[in-house]
Each structure stands twice: as structure tokens, then as C-alpha cells.
Amino acid sequence: AQSVAQPEDQVNVAEGNPLTVKCTYSVSGNPYLFWYVQYPNRGLQFLLKYITGDNLVKGSYGFEAEFNKSQTSFHLKKPSALVSDSALYFCAVRDFANSGYSTLTFGKGTMLLVSP
Amino acid sequence: DGGITQSPKYLFRKEGQNVTLSCEQNLNHDAMYWYRQDPGQGLRLIYYSQIVNDFQKGDIAEGYSVSREKKESFPLTVTSAQKNPTAFYLCASSIQGQRWDSPLHFGNGTRLTVT
């Protein structure tokens, strides 16, 4: 089965500084990777995805992610953090069943706290 | 606007009672999913359905049941057999389960508390 790991429970960064939220993956075959954000008591919002092509993927709200095949990583980045970016971030990978259909397998999440 | 509606937002039940969580989507998506979220554990898949009248167990299906009688609706029943039902439940949908590049769209969740 495919899996993702988010090694940091929490990331702290000052407003205006660059931020990185880490994700590593383990897959058989080509990886299909996603990042989501969750605000308190809300559902998850899709930020960006990597399917194929350029290793730097741009997404919503100024976020981007860098795919690194040799390091099996898909880190989320933003050049300049905002206080409003404070939220819970999830990395996910497409997983598949014998039925031929697929689901998403999520990491445990990383809480991002941006201080003023 | 298209989206996924989960109701109610908060639900309280006594131990031993079954409870059904509603999920409706108007995105015309074929695939629907139920996830459970617990602090520090991320999201875990309970059930998913790729087409009407068909559904598959996820990683933690024990103590749960679902139905998919209409494309728009995918209700989840938490039965009395579920040992730790208190959690935040998230419903999601995607265009097709075979479209590996399609993201999941999520509802705003139902927080279930069982005492």
C-alpha cells in the first residue's frame, strides 16, 4: 500500500518568513501526491497536486510544492508566510485497491503556526 | 454553488444508539468517501463508493455501515458496535475513482460525541 509521512507535528514560523512543511512518500509505481489545508472545525481544502511533469508545482493561496523523486519527498512551501496561513496541513497519496478504484491515503497532518 | 453538505454539524448520542450522518453532493461526482479524523491520527478511510449501489470497505469499516441508493447521497451509520465512535467525520467526493489525478472535495464535517 502507498503511504505518506509528515515528520513534524508542528511548524512555527514568523510572518513574512518562508515556510516549509515536509512530506515523504512510499509508493509502488508513479506517485500521485496532494496537499490539503484544514481550518478549525472545517473540511479539507485542496491546495495542489503532483501527477507528472515539472517538479515544482504551484497551487492556491501562493503555496507551491517541490517533488523530489530521489528523496521521495513532496515538501510544501511558501516564500512569505501570513498569519492567516495558520492551519493544519495534510499530505496525501493516491492509493488503489484490487477493485481498480482508488482512494487517498493521508499523513497525520502538520500544524502550521505563523506568529505576527 | 456546487458542493458537499454534511448534516448535522454537531451530533450527540448516548452509548448503544445507532446514528446516521448525512452527506449530499451536487457536484455530479461518481465517487464518494467517508473518513474519520481523530487528533494526531490524520484521516482514516471508513467506506467508499465509486458508483450507485456499490461500496467498498476502507481501513476501519468495523462498526459502520453505508448505503448508496442515489448518486448524490452517501449516508453513514455509526452502529453500537463501533467501540470508539466519538470523532470528526468527513465526507468527500471525486469525479471518478479511476481518475487518479482528480482531487477529493470535502464537506465541512460532522462532529459526533457519544457519551
Layout of helices and strands:
The complex is a heterodimer of chains A (116) and B (115).
Chain A: E1 3-5, E2 10-14, E3 19-21, E4 24-26, E5 33-38, E6 44-50, E7 56-58, E8 64-68, E9 73-78, E10 87-96, E11 102-106, E12 110-115
Parallel strand pairs in A: 2-12
Antiparallel strand pairs in A: 1-4, 3-9, 5-6, 5-10, 7-8, 8-9, 10-11, 10-12
Chain B: E1 4-7, E2 10-13, E3 19-25, E4 31-38, E5 42-51, E6 54-57, E7 64-66, E8 76-78, E9 87-94, E10 105-106, E11 110-114
Parallel strand pairs in B: 2-11
Antiparallel strand pairs in B: 1-3, 3-8, 4-5, 4-9, 5-6, 7-8, 9-10, 9-11
What does this structure look like?
- Chain A has 116 residues and is mainly beta.
- Helix content of chain A is 0%, strand content 53%.
- The model of chain A has no long low-confidence stretch (mean pLDDT 93).
- In chain B, strands 2, 4, 5, 6, 9, 10 and 11 form a 7-stranded mixed sheet that branches.
- In chain B, strand 5 and strand 6 form a beta hairpin.
- Classes of the chains: A mainly beta (116), B mainly beta (115).
> What string gives the helices and strands of chain B in order?
EEEEEEEEEEE
Integer-rounded radius of gyration of chain B? 13 Å
**Sheet with most strands of chain A:** 6 strands, mixed
The number of distinct helices of chain B, counting runs of at least 4 residues, comes to 0
Task: Give the H and E element order of chain A.
Answer: EEEEEEEEEEEE
- The global form of chain B is globular
Largest sheet: number of strands, sense, barrel closure of chain B? 7 strands, mixed
Mean pLDDT of chain A: 93
The gross shape of chain A turns out to be globular
What oligomeric state best describes the polypeptide chains here?
heterodimer
Give the DSSP E fraction of chain A (strand runs of 2 or more residues): over 45%
* Helix proportion range of chain B: under 10%
Structural class designation of chain A: mainly beta
How many angstroms does the end-to-end distance of chain A come to?
41 Å
Distance between the termini of chain B: 36 Å
